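Lab notebook, bench 4. The sequencing result for the construct came back, and we need a structural model before the next group meeting so we can plan mutations. Quick request posted to the team channel:

Model the 3D structure of this chain.
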Amino acid sequence: MAMQDERLANAVAIIEEAATLALTFFHARSGIETKTKGVQDFVSEADTSVERLVRERLDAVFPGETVLGEEMGGHADDAYWIIDPIDGTANFLRGSPLWGISLGFVRNGRPELGVVAIPVLKEVYAAADGTGLLLNGRAINRDIFFEDVQVMSLGDSASADAEEVAALNVGLRHAGWVVESIRSTSIGLAFAARGIFDGHLQKLTTMWDIAGGAVLAREAGLDVRIGSRTGSGIPWIAAGTPKLMTAAGELWPETQ
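Done. Here's the predicted structure in token form:
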């Protein structure tokens, strides 16, 4: 087994275990502890417990490698693992199935390996450079049905400029797109990779939100562009089909 394949297999096994733990919390969520990090931004006992498990397993399998997590911090160096233990915590707490677990490996600022689990749907997406897209351990193609139905995912967050996001939303709708906003970046990117969406756009994000899903989208054949906002360095991502990326570029020139 090639080194990259072995690393991916180990990462998948870790996230599969994490998904089982997260589901336990999900089914008992009425009794778990939560805290507020900001406006409509929550962290739960599930977030911290899942991240702790992933960190422990990474340390056992990849000793000495750098790890950065949304809840427990860390630092980014030339090569590091990055964890979003529950992406879509608000969805998780309200009982929506649209929450995920994301694990990525980033080298020199570029995500090169990613795993995204959607535990309620029993789906684990995985990819690394050159592997293509895997779903539950099997290679899949990005099959598109009803291609004339133009559906894309628009990322949003409480910290984003509401008017800026709304302007992009309206522009895309006027250009003929159905615009979904599911408030889980990793699932938006996974669904884009699968072919459920034509892509995912997000003007303000974080590396833990996008590292896993960006690799899935790229290996599925989508155009993936990651940049940073002028003045702040906050990441953005645009991933999509040529048609969507053209439409996005007319409304959001930084993606070109």
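The mean pLDDT is 92.
Will bring this to the meeting.
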